[in-house]
Structure formats: structure tokens, C-alpha cells
What does this fold into?
Amino acid sequence: MAMSKHLYQHLETLWQYMQMGHQLTSADVIFVPGSNDTRVAEVAAALYHKGLAPLIVFSGGHGRFTDGIFEHSEAVTFAQVAKDCGVPSDALLLEPRSTNSGENVQFTYELLKKKGIEVRKVILVQKPYMERRAYATFMKQWPGEIESLQVTSTGDNFFDYLTEDLTLDFVLGALIGDFERIQHYPEKGYQIEQPIPPEVEAAYQALKPLAA
It folds into this structure.
């Protein structure tokens, strides 16, 4: 797909908006909703090795992008990546039933409560373009009290994030789709409201036809 400088600027605007820019501090748990990008598990493992939290929770069954692709659930697949990165098994907790973002949050809360693990501070790791959606979903769907939620990702720019499987067309479509969820999911009760600056809305309007 050829992209003009003008469209590229819009792309960068929307891409940056979807990331939270949080500066990470220590937490009780690293929470990782599953997806089709195992690099997210590598980021979680790196944060664990930095000592930012003593426990990683991987959450996810088979989603629409992993059903028939991953041999095992997203949680199990991500856990294996973390183990390959040197994270010990006793630092991992798996929630392999959830099939959407809301369930990721709700089922993980239930699992931690069942295990008697008190959580007040959370680091959530996601794909770059899903950071804001993950934040908005967690803040709406987490049943308990929370002192801090910090969201992070690989932090790549748009084009560095692309791979042979995660193509420009696929990621652009996912970016547009997640922004539309930021727009519309609060009224459905799935997420908290997020402010959308005019330049971000303009970027979305310019890019939307490319994802049709």
C-alpha cells in the first residue's frame, strides 16, 4: 500500500494516541491478555526479569485470530514463550478460558481472588495499538479496587511493528477497529470513556477508507 506523507502523519497520530505512555513502577502482578502476537509475552518476561513484579498472569483461551493457529490456548502459548525467556513456572499463573477482553479481566480477577493473591497495582502488557483499549476495558471490568494500572507494550512505531504475518493491511485494520471500540464501547458498558482530541478524530477519518 502506497502512503503519502500526509497519511503517514495521520497514521503516527492515531498510533501514538492508542499508546498510554506510562512510566512503569513496581507492581503486584504483570497481567497479559492473550493475542496473536507472542512478542507481548517476551515483553512481560523482560519486565519480570527487571523485578517489576513477582508474578505474571497470562489470560486467554482461543480468540478469533488464534483459533486454529495456536496449538494450545493463548495463555499456555504465552506461558511457554515466557519460560523460554527464563521465567520460572512458579512465577506464572494461567487463565485459559477467556475469549474476549472483558473476560480476560474478569476471569483473571476471579483467579487471583481464588488463589488468595491480593492485587492493588497492575502492569498490563498488550500490543501497541491495543494499549488504550486495554486500559479502558480494565478500568471498567475489574471488579475490585485498584491503586494503579500501568499499561505498556513493545513500544514499536507502526512500521517497525509489522511482520510477515502482521502485515500493514492487517495491523491498520486492527488499529482502526480498536479506535472504533474506544469510540463506541463506553456506551455499551464495556469500557470507560476516553478523551479523543480533534487531531486524533481527524486522523481516524483520513485513515478509515484505507481499512475498508
Residues 5-18+25-211 form a domain with the Rossmann fold fold (CATH 3.40.50.620). The first strand starts at residue 29 and ends at 33.
